[in-house]
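User: Hey, quick favor. My workstation is busy. Could you predict this chain's structure for me?
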Amino acid sequence: MKKYLSRFAAAALALALLTVPSYALTVPQALELLEESYYYGVPDAAYGAAGLDELFEMLGDRYTVYMTAGEYQAFLDAVEDTVDLVGVGITVKYAEGGLLVESLVPGGPAQEAGLEPGDLIVAVDGVSCAPGGAEARDRLLGDEGTSVALTVLREGSTQTFTMTRRAIHVDNTTAELLEGGVGYVDCNSFGAGTDELLVQALEQYDSQVDCWLMDLRGNGGGYVDSALEMLAAVEGPGIYVYYEDHAGDVVWYGCTSPSATEKPLILLVDGDSASASELFAANVRDTGRGAVVGSRTFGKGVVQQTMNENSHPEYFDGDALKVTSYRYYSAAGNTPDKMGVIPTLLVDDEYAYAVARALAGGSEETSRLCVMLGTGLFYVDPEAEEGTVAALLAALPPQVLVFYNGGEFNQCTPAEAAREMGLDYEDRWFSDVADSPYKNAVNAMGAYRLLNGTAPGRFSPEERFSRAQLCVMLARALNVTASGSGYFTDVPEGRWYTDGVNAIAELGLVNGVGGGRFDPDRLVTQEEFFTIMGRAARYINVALDTYGWELDLGETPRAQMVRAALSSYSPWARTSMAVLTWGLEDAVGPQGDLLYAPLEELDPSALVLREEAAAEMYALLAGLEILP
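Assistant: No problem, here it is.
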């Protein structure tokens, strides 16, 4: 299904970016603009920059860039991601034998001539396409009204198709009806009119579909306003995003537009779904509006504003400066910054579309398998291939209800369903946690691949936990890697924990033990552990971060109990403990504690076990509605 003429659009953008920049903006002007709105603050060294290249290198932010007039226009074209060219209307992949047809533009010359997905174009006008590449692809283009002959290899024999080139227009968002009452929306970017295209598609097809499948794979983002209107189209009015600026001030934005559909929604994402795509996916996850399927998203949780001749005519003439100005948070107050969005079902890319299609294509009358995702029941297509069903079962955590129909639907585990269906599958749950009081939390973290075991299929739940292990586990959960090194003298390069320790140190979540040391092998106490987890909670959630933590909890019985319990913790641990015990109830809502056990059962000096660490990380992510 993905993506119309993406090779052509990518080639055009690449050519534009090869232009040698000619800077009109001066360094003092750039610094003035950065001081106004740059989220991270301008470092002192930047004021000595000799040129714009040096200035932006000192910032170290790949999203804050100066664009010449040509680069800015290419950027705008890429955001809109519509395609206008003269050709035959196909998207191709390069293959050793030629150009492999991926998809056809509906109603285009190639479709009308009889080409099909999977055809291998071996020659254009008699000239070989082997090996496939840009030169061969460009022969498909030409003047409107001219003819082109494509020699195609199909099922072992060749045939030639002749067609006339004509103007091709492909919107960045397209929709079609699939078999089984499924509406498929392919959204490549969030352009200025993308929300209108989505509403048109929903209004056109909604009465004919039982489930919507929306594809944001490869969607690198675009305009937030468009994403908000698209959220309203599937969810109705609401607050969908919070912006935090460089001063720490927070504002929210939402939409009042009515919903255009109430049908179940499945959202497809991958590692190239970024920015506005992540905002969209996070809100679908937060509200339980639908199921998000695929791999973890890119992790771009910051927003840029573009300064150009409209906003600053005294500085720009066709060129522009794009500046990271905000960190953003979804409806539940969580940022995808670095973390990305963890899908409802974490499925390898090769199976993601097939799994989503299987969830959308079944019915209560025909299906043998049913799962509850978000607020809806999804019946699995009985015709789905075994590999697809196995990939689906592997992605299910214990918190997702599974039902197998062996005459009637009964609740079961993924492993039990696999046995009933005779399937081999990758069991991400751990074999040695059945007796653990935290088994569901540990297995959920395993299902989302947020934990490393101690051996294949084993977690060693009752082993104690070191400071190095904590950093590695937390870095994996937060999806962060280190950009620097040398934070601690006893964390040398090349150790199994080096990147994890440095990554968590960069976020400011861990401190050393003094003298520039970290002491990676030292076992972690509960008050140390909860201090770091409280900091992680504040990194993730805007309400927890901006709430005043002076420990003035009031005089309710609950507040008195919390205050008394916190008195046994070291002063440096109390703020984080307050975040975890009081934060969601007071700052966000009535969800309760973010602790894996009641506060009164915890001992500040007790050593943390692996199962307790996994349970606390799950409690944090589930309490913030990041995991189910």
